[in-house]
Amino acid sequence: MLDERQAVEQARRGHEAAWRYLYEGHAGFVFRLAVRTTGDRAAALDVVQATFARAAAGIGRFRGESSFRSWLARIAINETTNWVRRQAWMAFVIPSAQFQWSFNRFSSPQFNIGTGDLA
């Protein structure tokens, strides 16, 4: 049985079993944090995936001065904040009922908003 420090060291070296151990030990925590912030279970699953992807990409920068869980929590909070910002931006910029893309193979993308045509 691995302890967390050993799992982090092995994960740095690319051992899949160590990542599985870390994921299984912390995915529920990240999911609960994301659900509380987003209020959306599907979004929370996306946040979990993005959090572990960023953790895998940045594991070499984890210094071990804090626990892996607190480092992962910071990543999850950042990912959740990014999700909330994207949702706010999309609600403001792209009203779904009024936005259509149309592509002409001989020209650049065009779009129609509401009843007005913009080319």
Q: How would you portray this structure in words?
A:
The chain is mainly alpha-helical. The protein is 64% helix and 9% strand. The chain is built from 4 helices and 3 strands. The chain has helices at residues 4-12, 16-38, 41-58, 68-93, and strands at residues 99-102, 110-113, 116-118. A hairpin with a 7-residue loop joins strand 1 and strand 2. The longest helix has 26 residues, at 68-93. The radius of gyration is 20 Å and the shape is elongated. The protein starts with a helix and ends with a strand.
Task: Give the structure's gist in a few sentences.
The chain has four helices and three strands; from the N terminus they run H-H-H-H-E-E-E. It has 119 residues and is mainly α.
